[in-house]
Amino acid sequence: MTLDILARDDTFTGVDGSGSARITVLQQAADGPLGLLGPLLGEGVRIVRLDLGEPVPAPDQLGSGLVVLGGPMSAYDDVVAPWLPATRTLLADAAWAGVPTLAICLGAQLLAVGGGGTVAVSAPPGRESGVVDVQWREGAASDPVLAPVVAAATSGVTKAVTMHSDAISELPEHATWLGWSRQYPYQAFRLGSALGVQFHPEAGKSLALGWALQHDDVDSPSVDAQMNAASAELADLVITLGRSFAAQVDAYAAAR
Q1: Which of 111, 136, 171, 208 gives a 20 to 30 Å CA spacing to 190?
Q2: Alpha helices, DSSP H only, in the chain?
Q3: What are the per-10-residue average pLDDT scores of the chain (256 residues)?
Q4: Residue 36 and residue 211: Cα distance in Å, rounded?
Q5: Tens digits of per-residue pLDDT, 178-216?
Q6: By C-alpha distance, which of 69, 149, 65 is closest to 101?
Q7: Radius of gyration of the chain (CA)
Q8: Does the CA dihedral 138-40-181-191 come out positive or negative?
Q9: How far apart are CA 103 and CA 13, in angstroms?
């Protein structure tokens, strides 16, 4: 399968809620959709729009997998985003219950806080944007989702899209640290059955450039050029990670 990350439409809306969900996706912002990951996850993907007032589902309503996406608020911004406390709790509960979970950017930060870690708001190193080199630690090679990503990495490095100024400053006590970048240490970690990634595997060019244009401290033409230069590697990341997570979900469903 070949995926042109520069041309693919990254606005994935999922299926309606009339049937039982296989994977539940929590979306926290209009400009934070499932994007390029959507078609790779398979059938039965239900999108819950927390930003539109839809309630955080109970653990027994998730199906066989959970994805929590990003957003512009901080992991502690409960007044602006009143769904955050329930989301933090759900992430921790799912991680310890064995539900395959993928938490992206803000989702990863919520997973960290829900598990007892901390997040630095407007972290001193400043905004990390564009395409970064994610470098893998030893445990990533045996991770149930990241193993094929690491196997495909060149010299232990994977290029990924990023856009954040808040950052995880301390992992939960029982988390496994899996990946880092030059600017921020916690690019990937595992807590129980949950994988948290600070980077954005779901972001195609329209999403990434849309985010870049919202910030005065981001050089949008540079982000464009970086994505052009790394397009093949970014495509490999979303395909490999998406398929790997979907396989974990299906294995969990079969064993239930």
Answers
A1: 208
A2: 84-97, 106-114, 147-152, 205-213, 220-229, 231-255
A3: 50 55 98 97 97 98 98 98 98 98 98 98 97 97 98 94 98 98 98 98 97 97 97 97 98 96
A4: 15
A5: 999 999 999 999 999 999 999 999 999 999 999 999 999
A6: 65
A7: 16
A8: negative
A9: 18
- Two tokens, residue 216: 């005065």
CA distance 192 to 213: 36
Pick from 235, 189, 248, 244: nearest CA to 35: 235
User: Amino acid identity, residue 170?
Assistant: E
DSSP class per residue in 153-218: -BTTEEEEEEEES-EEEE--TT-EEEEE-SS-S-SEEEETTEEEESS-TT--HHHHHHHHHT-TTS
Residue 239 DSSP SS3: helix
Residues 127, 55: Cα–Cα separation, whole Å: 31
